Amino acid sequence: MTKYKFTNPKKGEKKLNLELKESEEAVSVVETIVLKKNEMLNVDATVVHKAKNSLAKVLVKAVLYDNAELTFRGNVKVEKNVTNCDSNLSLKVLLVGRGCKVIASPALEIENNDVKCSHSVSISKPSEKETFYLMSRGLSKVFAENLIAQGFVRVEP
Hints:
By secondary structure, the chain is mainly β.
């Protein structure tokens, strides 16, 4: 599976433009984002399937601290005569602190029926149970939340 990365065309932006042009081409992209106090970021991810039997998996994990803002636009497009492709676009966000803002708009443009495509967005906060457990072991709330955030961004094999 080929691996690609997001680019930073200018400050406050990350972009991914993938075109799968070869049959049997497989692409995997994992991006980790940490936004600190008052930071803002626009993320654009576009995946275009132009060849049959292609595979694309895009996962973006983000941790937002106090008053950080993330705007995510994602699009998966499968062209008309492209069949048997598999594509997944996923955004997972952990909000740590107050005043964080996430705007997410994933989309699918499927021009035929013989594909398997999906998108998802999940937004959560550190679990009160997890935070309490770590604090009961002597950690401060801030340290406990940071430890949870580190575990959250760790990429599964």
